[in-house]
Amino acid sequence: MAQATNFGFGEDEAMLRDSAIKFFDDNCSPDKLHGLVAADSDVNRSNECHWQQSLWQQIGELGWTAACIPEAAGGMGMPLVAAVALAEEAGKAAFPSPLISTFNASFVLTAAATDNANKTLAEIATGRAASLAITNEKGSWEGSDTDVEFIDGKLSGTAYFVQDARKSEILVVAAKSAAGVGLYVVNADSTGITIEADSIIDLTRDQAHITFDKVSATEVAAAGDGDSAINQAMPSILCITAADMVGTGEWLLQTTVDYASTRIQFDRPLAFFQAVKHPLVNVMLAIDAAKSLTYNAACAISQEPENGEKLARMAKSAASDMAVFSSSRAIQFHGGIGFTWECFVHLFFKRQMHNQVLYGDAKYQRAKLADLLMGKAA
Predict the structure, then answer these.
(1) Looking at the whole model, is its pTM more than 0.85?
(2) All domains of the chain, ordered by start, with CATH?
(3) Coil vs helix vs strand at 360
(4) What is the separation of C-alpha 301 from the centre of its chain, rounded to a whole number of angstroms?
(5) What's the chain's average pLDDT?
(6) CA dihedral (166, 169, 172, 177) positive or negative
(7) Rounded to an integer, what distance in angstroms lies between the CA atom of residue 5 and that of residue 119?
(8) CA 284, CA 300: separation in Å to the nearest integer?
C-alpha cells in the first residue's frame, strides 16, 4: 500500500495543528515559561513540579488526548500524524504538561486491544493524564526486564524513569509473573504507591521512580502479552519523541537566527559571518531531515505498519543527533548570554538533552536498525 500524499496530513490534521499554534501562542510564550519553571535559580532549590493544570484541562476540552484514540474507545480515530503535529508544537513551546507521556500510554493501551484497555483509553480521551511505568533501574523497557512483579493480583516492585509522574492520574505498568509480562493500570494516587521525584536537567518535565507495595491493579494485557503490546507501540512512541525534538529544534534555530541578525559585532550583524550562517544552515537541514523522517514514519505506522519500526528508529536517530547539534549551536551563537539563567535558550537546550536519550539515543537506534536490516550478530 502506497503512502498517502503529504504523509496523510489533511485538513483535519491542519486544523488541529493550527489550534495548537494559537493555544501555545496565547498561553506559553517563552517569558511565561521561564517565569513558571525557572523562577528560582538556586541550585539547592527543592524539586518542584511546575505546570498549569488549568491549561491541561483546556487541552482535554480541545480533544487533543482523544485525537489518535480509536473511535471504538471513545476517541477521534485520527492517524498518528495528528499526534505528531501536536507533539511538534508542544516541543516548540517546551510546554510543561503530560501530553507526550499521555500519548505514549495511549499507544500501548491501543496495542493491548482488550476491553479493559479500551475503558482506560476512554478515560484518557476525556482528558485524564497517563504515563508509562515500564522501565527498570538500568533503563531497559524491554519485556521481562521490568522490576515490578504481579503476584496474587497485586503489584510490587519499582518502575524507574517514569515521565511526568507527578502530573499523571493513570499509570500503565509492566509487571512480570510466572506466565510472562503483563500490563496493568492503576490510579497514581492508589494506596501503596510511592512517587519519588528524580532530579533531572529538564525544567519543563518531571521524572520519578515509583514503588508499588502490594497495589491492586486492573489487567489490560494478559501475562505473556505485555511485551507484544509495548513492542507494537514503540514505533509510535519514538515518533512522538522525535516530533517533540523537531519542534524544540525549530524554536532554537529561529531564536538563534533572530539573535544573530540583530547582534552587532565588528560593525556587522553576526549573521553576516560565514562561521555563523553556514552552521545555522546546517542546523536547518538537520531539522528538515528529522522532520521528514518523523512524518514519514508516522504515516507508515498508520498505512504500512510493517515498515513502521524501521522508519521510526531512523527518525529518532536523526532527531537525537539534531537535538544535540541545534542546542550546541544555539548556546554558542548566543555568546556569553547563552550561558545565563535569564536567557530562555537553556530551557529548550535541556529539553533536547532529555529527549535525545529518552527511549534510546541515536547510537542505540542505529544499532537496532542494524539488527532489523542485517540481522543480529551471532
Answers:
(1) yes
(2) 5-129 (1.10.540.10), 131-226 (2.40.110.10), 227-374 (1.20.140.10)
(3) coil
(4) 17
(5) 93
(6) positive
(7) 34
(8) 24
